[in-house]
Specification:
Length: 213
């Protein structure tokens, strides 16, 4: 996981805190909130570089992948061990929620009438892409290396993670109580995750085809 989606300063401002007594706890909940958001949605929001994901295509023309910037000059894609060329024989498709990232990859043309789709790949012969086994795919046949995450955190994700981090902080400070009063006197119900966070999870959740990281 990359850096937390909310900074210590942002979280303290949200909570109305000025002292440093709880800085360690606040940094911890900010990190935990980011991890929860990514685990609950199956997304990668925080940016990290030089990350490798291996996928089993199972013979599909396209599949869901982890979030990657739509454009990344460092990215390398290989299929069956052969390096692919973006825009020629592999395509990253923009995500409907954030056009700056891709969460889908296409590795074949959608021309089902043509049985020689593999000819679009420059290295089809070396990769043996005309083999019958490609109809079912081989394990970990697609490898993507490069930057992961969102170049800038979407507003609704940022707000939801900030609210979740504050909720985790209040829960840690509230002990066994189901309710806690904030510094502004607002009573917070600790029995349920914040509604903004729940809506964000429902909106952003995907299921990737990842096999190995």
């Amino acid at each position: 996981m990359g850096a937390p989606l909310v900074t210590l300063t942002e979280l303290k401002t949200y909570l109305g805190k000025t002292g440093t007594d709880d800085d360690v706890l606040l940094a911890s909940v900010a990190s935990n909130a980011t991890a929860m958001a990514e685990n609950d949605t199956g997304r990668i929001f925080a940016v990290s570089s030089n990350v490798t994901h291996r996928y089993s295509t199972d013979g599909q023309r396209s599949l869901v992948i982890h979030d990657r910037p739509y454009s990344d000059a460092t990215r390398v894609v290989t299929l069956q061990g052969v390096t692919m060329t973006e825009g020629t024989d592999v395509w990253f498709l923009t995500d409907r929620r954030n056009p700056d990232v891709a969460a889908n990859i296409q590795i074949q043309y959608y021309d089902t009438a043509a049985g020689d789709w593999y000819l679009a790949h420059a290295g089809w012969f070396d990769a043996n892409l005309d083999s019958a086994r490609l109809r079912g795919g081989t394990p970990n046949d697609l490898v993507v290396v490069g930057t992961v995450g969102h170049p800038s955190t979407p507003g609704d994700v940022k707000a939801a993670v900030l609210e979740l981090a504050a909720w985790l902080y209040w829960r840690a400070k509230g002990g066994s109580s189901s309710y806690v009063d904030t510094l502004t006197g607002t009573e917070v119900d600790l029995s349920y995750l914040p509604m903004a966070y729940q809506v964000m999870v429902k909106t952003w959740t995907i299921r990737t085809a990842v096999a190995v990281v």
